[in-house]
Every structure is written in C-alpha cells, then in structure tokens.
C-alpha cells in the first residue's frame, strides 16, 4: 500500500470572469440577432443599418443558403453575450412602442420557449427606417436568453424588471 503525502496543498484561484461585486453584471446571458438577406437586397446596407439601429458592437457571421427556386439567400447573425447583451436588450425594450411592449408583457408565453428565452421579431423594413415594429413576415429575429438561475419565479416579473421603464 502506498502512502499519501499531505505536505503539499495546492490552492487555485480563478478570476471572477463576468462577475461584479454584487455577483453577475448582467441578467441576460446572450442576445442573438438574425435576419435573411435576399439576393435582390443590398447586404452591406442591411447589415450596417441593423447594426446601427440596435447598437450592436460586434461583426456578424454569415451563412449562405439556397432558396426554393435556387436563389441565393444569406443568413446574417450577430451574437452578443454578457453586458453587451444586457445593454442591447434594455435599449431595444425601451425603444419599443408601449403597445408593442404591452403585447409582449401581456402575452409572454407566446414570445418565450420552454427555457424562458424571449423571441422578438421586428419588421426589417420598418427597422431600417428607425421604427421598432413587431412583425412575423421577413423579420429581424431577436432571441434573448436569460441567466436561468437568476429568473426565480415568474418570467413576466423578471422580463418586466430587466426591460426597465418604457420610453415610448
């Protein structure tokens, strides 16, 4: 039988990545913004406009797809995490018209999945004109993923608190 030496103790301290004095800096884990660009649309204009309107501080990834009739379609996706995700979500929520925000908060189940991620779809053309209008056809899709362990209890109360006050 071997002997166990107890004269060496190793203590490893990991940095508190993403943590502030009161714990996590953001209650939103990630935000994903995606939309399709048809072959007839101006890709640079769309990407730059969506990036500017939603104050996205990152460059997107792109995936080339083929449409039903062989047409070229590009799926553009921005992925944000941590504080930037929180900032973008709060900014978006405050930019929504009161009736759209009330629709989301009043029908939260229709906008969430089983993991409490929130899905908001904005009209792409309206967004290019600076208006934040909910839509289902040709939308800019926004998926908001909360830090699940911070969402204790009611998702409606959580999103209402995280969204902050409405400005419109």
Condensed summary:
By secondary structure, this protein is α+β, with helices and mostly antiparallel strands.
How would you portray this structure in words?
The protein is built from six helices and seven strands. It has a single domain, classed as 2-Layer Sandwich (50s Ribosomal Protein L5, Chain: A), CATH 3.30.1440. Strand 4 and strand 5 (72-81) form a beta hairpin. The chain has helices spanning 43-53, 82-95, 98-106, 108-111, 124-128, 155-163, and strands at residues 19-20, 23-24, 28-38, 61-66, 72-81, 118-123, 139-146. Strands 4-5-3-7-6 form a five-stranded antiparallel beta sheet. Strands 1-2 form a two-stranded antiparallel sheet. By secondary structure, it is an alpha+beta fold. The chain is globular.
Biggest sheet descriptor: 5 strands, antiparallel
Structural domains: how many: 1
Q: State Rg.
A: 21 Å
Overall average residue pLDDT:
83
Percentage of β-strand residues: 25-35%
Helix content: 25-40%
Structural class: alpha+beta
- Quick one: CATH superfamily? Ribosomal protein L5
Q: Which CATH class applies here?
A: Alpha Beta
> Uncertain runs with pLDDT below 50, 5 residues or more?
3-23
Q: What is the β-strand count?
A: 7
CATH topology: 50s Ribosomal Protein L5, Chain: A
- Write out the strand line-up for the largest beta sheet, numbering strands in chain order: 4-5-3-7-6
Q: What's the tally of helices?
A: 6
Q: Which word captures the global form?
A: globular
Features of this protein?
168 residues; five-stranded antiparallel sheet; 6 helices; disordered N terminus
């Amino acid at each position: 039988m071997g002997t166990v030496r107890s004269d060496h103790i190793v203590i490893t301290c990991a940095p508190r990545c993403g943590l502030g004095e009161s714990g996590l800096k953001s209650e939103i884990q990630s935000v994903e913004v995606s939309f399709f660009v048809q072959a007839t649309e101006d890709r640079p204009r769309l990407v730059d406009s969506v990036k500017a309107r939603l104050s996205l501080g990152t460059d997107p990834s792109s995936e080339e797809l083929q449409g039903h009739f062989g047409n070229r379609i590009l799926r553009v996706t921005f992925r944000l995490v941590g504080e930037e995700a929180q900032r973008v979500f709060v900014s978006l929520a405050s930019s929504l018209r009161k009736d759209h925000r009330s629709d989301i908060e009043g029908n939260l189940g229709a906008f969430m999945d089983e993991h409490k991620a929130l899905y908001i779809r904005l009209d792409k053309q309206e967004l290019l004109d600076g208006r934040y209008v909910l839509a289902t056809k040709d939308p800019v899709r926004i998926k908001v993923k909360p830090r699940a362990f911070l969402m204790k209890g009611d998702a409606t109360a959580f999103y209402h608190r995280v969204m902050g006050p409405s400005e419109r």
